[in-house]
Design goal:
5-stranded mixed sheet; binds zinc ion; 40% helix; 289 residues; elongated; alpha+beta; Nucleotidyltransferase, domain 5; 3 domains
Length: 289
């Protein structure tokens, strides 16, 4: 198992904790096996992204989330989606590339015959496809693309493969602790500001980004008096290594609020899964998922 973890740059710190490839602790006693499996799978994909980034000549992991979003869209026919897959996977070889691999093809474009046959020429330059190109992406993109890619090889990768250097390593990662804010609109009943009891409404949310690793989830809880007066609100991001998803926000809200309970309380949620999960008997709640 240690060898397998090393392959994805993970470490086993002790019997109860793994350290993932980004240095985040994965506490085995707090996470379900299904969630640990998901985190392992994501790490395997990150390794693949590093390998792809190296092949494309990027300084970081490759990110193809923009292409994945296009593949999930109903805008494209199955044939078009297959073509997009072929482009991003480098299954389409222009003649210049095929010649560099020893195949005997002519060097110049089959349609216009005026320029060398590269992917960039086929997609963006060849005058024989100008009308279709302008219909597909508009004049502004077509007219600006040569200038755009002249500013770096990474831009050429984006223009021909739909891949880019992954912003997930530059962007601040999800917090592992802290930022658990609490605000009382009245004098708090005890010195510990994080203790509450009564009628509590909880909610979770997630801000979405086309690059999935930049999604960020958080939760909040609001305490009301019997006279329906707002007494206290608390909010907190969903901490790593939990997934940054709306569901993780809803469940973190439940557990965050529960940890602060100082006495009998009623919790209200708008998430059916949270409600169903916590209505189950105790032994069913520890189901492996
Ligand atoms: Zn041409």
């Amino acid at each position: 198992m240690r060898k397998s973890l090393e392959r994805i740059s993970w470490q086993m710190r002790d019997f109860a904790a793994l350290i993932d490839d980004r240095g985040v602790e994965v506490p085995l006693l707090c996470l379900s096996p299904a969630l640990v499996r998901r985190l392992l799978m994501e790490a395997v994909f990150r390794q693949l992204e590093w390998a792809i980034g190296g092949k494309l000549g990027l300084p970081a992991r490759a990110c193809s989330d923009v292409v994945h979003e296009a593949l999930a869209s109903k805008r494209y026919s199955p044939l078009e989606r297959g073509t997009i897959r072929a482009w991003i996977c480098r299954a389409v070889w222009a003649w210049v590339y095929a010649r560099s691999k020893g195949h005997d093809f002519p060097e110049f474009c089959e349609l216009c015959g005026a320029a060398r046959d590269t992917l960039f020429h086929r997609l963006w330059v060849c005058p024989c496809l100008d009308r279709q190109r302008r219909e597909a992406v508009g004049d502004e993109v077509v007219d600006g693309i040569v200038d755009f890619v002249s500013k770096g090889k990474q831009r050429l990768v984006l223009a021909t493969r739909g891949g880019m250097a992954h912003p997930g390593d530059e962007h601040p990662p999800p917090l592992e602790e802290g930022s658990w804010d609490v605000v009382w609109s009245r004098d708090p009943p005890s010195e510990n500001l994080f203790q509450m009891q009564g009628t509590i409404f909880i909610d979770g949310s997630c801000s979405r980004h086309v690059v999935k690793e930049l999604n960020r989830a958080s939760w909040c809880a609001a305490l009301f008096s019997e006279e329906n007066e707002l007494l206290c609100t608390m909010k907190c991001p969903v901490w790593a290594p939990l997934p940054q998803t709306p569901q993780a926000g809803e469940f973190s809200g439940y557990w965050g609020a529960t940890m602060c309970l100082a006495g009998p309380s009623a919790l209200y949620t708008d998430c059916a899964n949270v409600k169903l999960q916590h209505e189950l008997p105790r032994d069913a709640q520890t189901f492996f998922k």
